[in-house]
Structure formats: C-alpha cells, structure tokens
From TrEMBL:
Residues 22-124 form the SnoaL-like domain. Gene3D superfamilies: 3.10.450.50. The lineage of its organism: Bacteria, Bacillati, Actinomycetota, Actinomycetes, Pseudonocardiales. It comes from Actinosynnema mirum (strain ATCC 29888 / DSM 43827 / JCM 3225 / NBRC 14064 / NCIMB 13271 / NRRL B-12336 / IMRU 3971 / 101). It holds the Pfam family SnoaL_2. This is SnoaL-like domain-containing protein. InterPro entries: NTF2-like_dom_sf (IPR032710), SnoaL-like (IPR037401).
C-alpha cells in the first residue's frame, strides 16, 4: 500500500519523485495537493495546439481532468537540469470510464518545465501535457 501524501512531501526537492507524487495526488483526486506542485505563475497546455493558460483557467483544466475520476499512469522518460530550471519528459495515459459514463482514452508525452524555488523545492512553471503535438 502506498503511504499517504504528507504536506511536507509537496512540492518536492527531489525531481526523481515529481511524477510519482503528481500521480499519487491525481489518483486521489486531490486538487489542493496538485496546486501546491505549481508555481503561482504557472501555465498549462491541456490539449494539443492550444495556447497555454494560467491562473483560474489552468486550475479549471486540472479540475476537469480530476472530475472524470479515471486514474492516470505515467513514467518519467528524462530529467534535464540547468541550474534552477528542469525539464521532465513524461509518458502518460488516462484510460477508463469517467464518473459520467464517458469513455476516456488519452495518452501523451508531456514536457514539463519546473523551477526550483528559494526553498529548494521544484514547482511546475510550464505543463505541456502533449509536448508540443499539433493535433
């Protein structure tokens, strides 16, 4: 059994744990914990070809995905660090039947840019779920 997420775990200072911690929060439908993993100025791209959105629009996109109540699976393919900036390449999938009965079948390779804060912890600043795919 996976140990419960602790407030002191999120955000993390260990990039090798980032994807696992995100998955644990996502698969617990824990929007508050996920939000602690993002910088206040973070932007996200949740559909291929869309412009990045921040603030309330980004939070609404996260809430929409969580409302499906379909677990995500993911694995980190690469971690690249330059000073206080990091790039994570993550293969992910969300497949199953949503709480509404809708069939969900999404996959992608995310490109996630993170920034290390003064506290030494990493937070998403750009979350591109489809890694720049155009369609």
């Amino acid at each position: 059994m996976t140990e419960p997420l602790m407030v002191h775990d999120i955000p993390t200072d260990d990039l090798t744990r980032q994807t696992d911690l995100f998955l644990r929060a996502f698969n617990s439908w824990d929007h508050d914990t996920i939000e602690r993993m993002y910088s206040p100025d973070a932007v996200s791209v949740w559909k291929p070809g869309e412009e990045p959105v921040g603030g309330d629009a980004r939070r609404a996109n996260v809430a929409e995905f969580l409302a499906w109540r379909v677990p995500m699976r993911a694995r980190t393919k690469g971690i690249y660090v330059n000073g206080d900036t990091a790039l994570l390449i993550v293969d992910w999938e969300i497949r199953g039947t949503a709480a509404s009965g809708e069939l969900i079948d999404l996959t992608g390779t995310g490109t996630d840019v993170l920034r290390r804060g003064r506290d030494g912890r990493w937070r998403y600043i750009i979350d591109n779920a489809y890694g720049g795919a155009d369609d």
